[in-house]
Write a structure and sequence with these properties.
Length: 306
Amino acid sequence: MNRTSRRTAVLATVVLVALALAPDAAATAPGRNGLIAFQANIGDTGPQIFTVRSNGRKLRQITHVDGVAALPDWSPDGRRIAFTLNECAIALMDVDGGNLHEVASDPGLCLSDPSFTPDGARLVYTRFDFALEAEQIWSMKTDGSDQRFITDAGGPDPNVSPDGRKISFKGQPDGALFVANIDGSGIVQVSPSISVTYKHDWAPDGQHLVVSDNSDPAPDEAVNILTVRPDGSDWTYLTHYPAGYRANVGGYSPDGQWIVFRLEGPGLEPTMYRIRPDGTDLHALFASSTIVPRFIDWGPAERHTG
């Protein structure tokens, strides 16, 4: 397979996962609740990034790239969004879509899934090496310099814990959820050997992760949301939807009081909901048959320094 074919194959995999699962890599930064970002397909073009208020109002498309803008992740100060640009590059932009610029790309690599570290100084990301056909997790400074290898035990959706000491990701076997030290050591399998959905998130206090339980549901199966501790204990379901329904998690709100997700099912327009971390107090935020929110990330309110 030549490089172009491999790149196309990687993109096809990402798109199929996005359509089936919903969700960036995104560890929610503690703070006041700000805007919610997500990607959505517009007509026959590639996905673009949108923001919406936490009450579901003021929907706004903030990217208009000629290609793909996907997998958004908020900076801890709520001022920037990191995302995957045109399949295999990493980019940054301001909250309104301004100052959009590429941070890192390489013809021999596919760089995607950027996620900020809690101090906002670095990005962790997935790196696929076409020559080695290897998927790894790396980190770099937000200007693209100082690129460092972390692990080859997984790739999709790397997220750094709020204290900066751990990293979570979807890995092997079977696409389970794993947690490791930030240097890639001490890997622990957090979920059973099931293929969890692409997107997951850390609670702002670092005590739990939230994930959905089925990345490839059959028609007679459901997708539901659960929380689990970083050591794999306290596996607790928050939703109990029946067969045919898909509850694809986005992540926690910065204040830790809510979890945002997309629900689809028979006779139901794709809808963004929020729910308490104990599974109570369900609220619909935004519904659309044309703008379907995927890879949802709830950002902190914008903070200014200096």
